[in-house]
Design brief:
β8, α6 and β9 form a beta-alpha-beta unit. The longest helix has 21 residues. This protein is α/β, with parallel strands linked by helices and 498 residues long.
């Protein structure tokens, strides 16, 4: 058997072993016999080294002209584009989602890097007339310092790029802790960044558990900002860790997203969208379409078509392009999803329409596979209606009317993404206004965000900040208002301007 490659931490421009001397294995979820790589099991000493390097590098990096910082990001994007296929295959091996999706993941990292490269010349402030004569007023963004980042396993290159690129173009330095299930994709990204011109210490990567790496990083007083994507439960702990020092804290957390299908909708289009929204990435997306709210007039027709299509989804190793859905990312994630399948079957009134367990067959025994699963007649009060499952499970929920559908959509602790399928422009615009989410689609599923619009949610999904677009710059910078008085006398603003 081929020996797995050992990967090290990236600190101050060097690949170094952890202080513990211990490692952990990165397992292919489609074939648990394959060890994708061996990674460092780090602790607070490694975090200290990385933060020290980042704090030192910040002193010079903040003074590099922003357009020059952008040019380095542009070179990084070019390199990612050239290596896209290999990066995608590595991601499928460690994460499990099919190649078409990992190519999209890498492409999103490329898009974000190109976009933020341009912000090196477009991080606009304001100029405005003064109340007083011979006085000039303007505002500028200023960087924060060391930014700590904790990233998830479901988009192991896109989300790190969402976080790192705006931080870097603003003049900050970075310490990133990748998810323990998918460290290879972040290591690949950091390797490219280091080789394409980022000075030592500007980007640092430390692998290991949340308790051993994430916690000391966010409690380090030299870390001025923490950006986290993951569960609401852990996000609350991140917020509590940041509060005593008033650190910038960006949280992107859970979702329980819905598609509303009205009785005038193109049913076949809605079925296509709901399948992609529910079972793309094996349902392991914070934007997954895990609730499908159906007008009662088309409920049975939609359910019949949707279930037949869900049963026909080709499951298997994502490296084989005939497969449409890969495995869960890990054994623990698979077991969590299987437990929710049991919960759904025990809910009083819910009907299991397809799936409900693991696919049968020898080819699935070495992978963490689950079936596409659909529950019908789901209503509020059921756990599968309210709780984020993060797997290949979705619910069909009957609605009496448009108003009832909106009420059902908003009956949720989360507020990330939602959509409506309808030909009625009045319903479409009313839903856009009345469904309280950070993202909304019309005649499309709840997934498909683009890098030039802000990404994030309301309620328990986030804490008000956004990723992507120019809004991401606000997470990693502070505004400074500047007044230049060239009158030669003391002017007391409102006092002398009455």
């Amino acid at each position: 058997m081929k020996r797995a490659k050992v990967y090290k931490n990236f600190i101050n421009g060097e690949w170094v072993k952890s202080h513990t001397g211990e490692t952990f294995k990165n397992i292919n979820p489609a074939n648990t016999d394959e060890v994708v790589g061996v990674f460092q099991k780090s602790d607070k000493r490694d975090v200290n080294d990385a933060v020290t390097a980042a704090a030192k590098a910040y002193k010079k990096w903040r003074l590099v002209p922003a357009p020059k910082r952008g040019e380095i990001l542009y070179n990084i994007a070019n390199r990612l584009l050239k290596e896209k296929e290999q990066l995608s295959q590595d991601m499928t091996r460690e994460m499990g989602k099919v190649l078409a999706e990992t190519r999209g993941d890498v492409q999103e990292a490329i898009d974000m890097t190109y976009y933020m490269a341009g912000e090196g010349r477009r991080a606009f402030g304001q100029t405005t007339p003064s109340e007083m004569n011979n006085k000039f007023c303007m505002s500028v963004r200023q960087p924060l310092g060391v930014c700590g980042m904790i990233t998830p396993w479901n988009f192991p290159m896109a989300i790190p790029a969402w976080k790192m690129m705006p931080a870097l173009v603003m003049g900050n330095t970075v310490v990133i802790k990748p998810a323990t299930d998918t460290p290879l994709s972040v290591a690949n990204l950091v390797k490219v960044m280091g080789e394409e011109g980022l000075p030592p210490g500007v980007v640092n990567m430390v692998t290991g558990s949340g308790g051993s790496v994430g916690s000391p990083m966010m409690h380090d007083k030299r870390v001025e900002c923490v950006s986290f994507t993951g569960s609401t439960e852990i996000g609350r702990k991140v917020s509590e860790a940041c509060a005593p020092d008033f650190k910038h804290c960006h949280l992107e957390m859970g979702g329980k997203n819905c598609i509303i299908v009205m009785d005038d909708a193109d049913i076949d289009l809605a079925v296509d969208g709901a399948l992609w929204g529910a079972f793309g990435t094996t349902g392991q997306r914070c934007t997954a379409s895990s609730r499908i709210i159906l007008h009662k007039k088309i409920y049975n027709k939609f359910a019949r078509k949707f279930v037949n299509r869900a049963k026909a989804i080709k499951i298997g190793n994502g490296l084989d392009e005939k497969h449409q859905m890969g495995p869960a990312v890990s054994e623990s994630q698979m077991r969590s999803v299987l437990e929710y399948m049991k919960i759904g079957q025990q809910e009083d009134g819910a009907k299991l329409l397809c799936g409900g367990g693991r696919p049968k067959g020898a080819k699935y025994r070495k992978g963490w596979y689950t079936q596409p699963t659909v529950f019908g007649d789901v209503v509020p009060g059921m756990r599968v209606f309210h709780e984020e499952i993060f797997g290949s499970v979705t619910d069909l929920i009957p609605a009496k009317s448009f108003d009832d559908a909106i009420k059902l959509a908003n009956n949720c602790a989360y507020g990330l993404s939602a959509s409506i399928y309808t030909q009625n422009v009045n319903w479409a615009f009313s839903a856009m206004r009345d469904v309280f989410t950070g993202i909304f689609y019309v005649n499309a599923p709840t997934i498909g965000a683009e890098t030039h619009l802000p990404f994030g949610g309301t309620k328990h999904t986030g804490n008000g900040h956004r990723e992507a677009c120019t809004q991401a710059l606000g997470v990693f910078s502070e505004w400074k208002s500047i007044y230049v008085d060239f009158s030669g006398v003391i002017q007391r603003a409102q006092i002398d301007n009455q």
